[in-house]
Amino acid sequence: MILLRYKKTYEKIAMGLLSYMPGDKTVKKLQEWIQRYETDDSWQLYLLKKDEDFIGLIGIELGEEDYTLQHLSVNPSFRGEGIGQEMVMKLQALFPDKTCIGTEETDLFIQKCKPKEEGSD
Asked: Domain N-acetyltransferase spans what residues (predicted)?
């Protein structure tokens, strides 16, 4: 599986994957998100490709020392296979010097992805 940076030709695929996110999924809202990823350099969107299919999407807002996980979505046919966790790990490999933080919607998932450290409570 490969993580690819969003480009305009992926717009419909990205909107479809974003529509799997909980919350406001109106076309207008999806277009606003895509517009933000296309125009704001600190917002970066990546799509996960398996064989010939795009099966997941992960979007972040880059900060100075961290990045905020804004969107994480996996095609329902591939859920429960660790795809979301794999995308988070691939993103951490892309930005090894930054800390991943979550939004109200994504924080719980990020906590589940963190490796269990020995001796931590």
From this structure: 4-121
Q: Is the dihedral of CA 115, 1, 23, 71 positive or negative?
A: positive
Question: Tokens at residue 99, please?
Answer: 């800390």
The string of pLDDT tens digits covering residues 32-82 is 999 999 999 999 999 999 999 999 999 999 999 999 999 999 999 998 999
Q: Put residue 26 in one of left, alpha, beta given phi > 0 → left and psi -120 to 50 → alpha.
A: beta
Using DSSP's 3-state secondary structure scheme, residue 98 falls into: coil
Classify strands 2-5 and 99-102 as parallel, antiparallel or unpaired: unpaired
In CATH, the architecture of 2-113 is 3-Layer(aba) Sandwich (3.40)
C-alpha 19/C-alpha 57 separation (Å) is 11
32: closest CA among 20, 24, 22?
Answer: 24
